[in-house]
Design goal:
Protein name: Putative threonine efflux protein
Largest sheet: 2 strands, antiparallel
Number of helices: 9
Structural class: mainly alpha
Strand order of the largest sheet: 1-2
GO molecular function: amino acid transmembrane transporter activity
Keywords: Cell membrane, Membrane, Transmembrane, Transmembrane helix
Oligomer: single chain
Number of strands: 2
Main location: membrane
Order of helices and strands: HHHHHEEHHHH
Membrane topology: Multi-pass membrane protein
């Protein structure tokens, strides 16, 4: 079941999203370790969402009014990250270095990875659908479901590690001007993801 979850998770990772481009940018700007910390934050939130899906909280999230509020909140968060990266290429900042949780700052990559992933709580609905289908098709036990979820989380860590490595390599071999152009493009991509998230029918 771990292998099956890993395979499905890898298929989902291939759909490049805001988290992927964010990890790539971190690897390019601040190195592999910083990007890996962000990837760990992403994996933790993914694991939390999978557990919530298993426990059935998706039925609450699926209410139309709640879904719309969460979608708006998620789009705003992703857009802010995108704008932060865009203006950062000019030496400006959108997100202030506000201390969170006893001194952790918004520039902490681990926290940023968690926040960006948590900004799309509708992921719970997706995982709920996946697990419902798997349980019905393969008559999974609760232990099987947990192992399937573990495989999915492992795929997140593996894929984002690869992305972080590629990002850190570009920092070593590409000129600063090219890196700035990539950052600007990534920021635009995040803003695009935010608009698509907001206007996408649920």
């Amino acid at each position: 079941m771990i292998t099956k979850g890993f395979k499905l998770g890898m298929m989902l990772q291939l759909a490049i999203g805001p988290v992927c481009v964010f990890i790539f940018t971190l690897g390019g700007n601040k190195g592999l370790l910083t990007a890996e910390l962000a990837a760990l934050g992403v994996a933790i939130i993914d694991a939390l969402y999978i557990l919530l899906a298993i426990f059935g909280i998706a039925s609450f999230i699926d209410k139309e009014r709640v879904k719309q509020v969460l979608k708006l909140f998620g789009a705003i968060i992703v857009a802010l990250f995108g704008l932060h990266i865009i203006v950062g290429t000019f030496g400006w900042k959108v997100l202030p270095n506000v201390s969170l949780f006893n001194g952790i700052k918004t520039e902490n990559s681990f926290v940023e990875g968690m926040v960006l992933t948590a900004s799309n709580p509708l992921t719970i609905l997706f995982w709920a659908g996946v697990f419902s289908t798997k349980i019905a098709e393969e008559k999974l036990t609760r232990a099987d479901v947990y192992l399937f979820g573990l495989g999915s989380v492992l795929s997140t860590i593996f894929f984002l590690t690869v992305i972080a490595v590629f990002g850190s390599i570009t920092r070593q071999f590409l000129p600063v001007l090219v890196i700035s152009a990539i950052n600007f493009t990534v920021g635009l991509a995040l803003v695009y993801f935010a608009f698509r998230m907001f206007f996408k029918k649920t």
